[in-house]
Known about the structure:
The chain has one helix and no strands. By secondary structure, it is mainly alpha-helical.
Amino acid sequence: MLFKIPMVDDRSLLESVVSSLCLYVECFLLQWVFKLLREYRVECVLNVCEAGR
Length: 53
C-alpha cells in the first residue's frame, strides 16, 4: 500500500508535466503556423498587387 502512493504521485506529476509540455508545444506551433499564414497572405496580396499593375 505504501509503495502504491508514490507511484501514483509520480504518474500524476509526469502527466501534468507532459500535458503542460504539450500545451507549450501546441501554442508554439500555432503561433508559428499563424506567422507563416500571415507572411504567406501578405506575399499573396503583394503578388496580386504586382500582377494587377
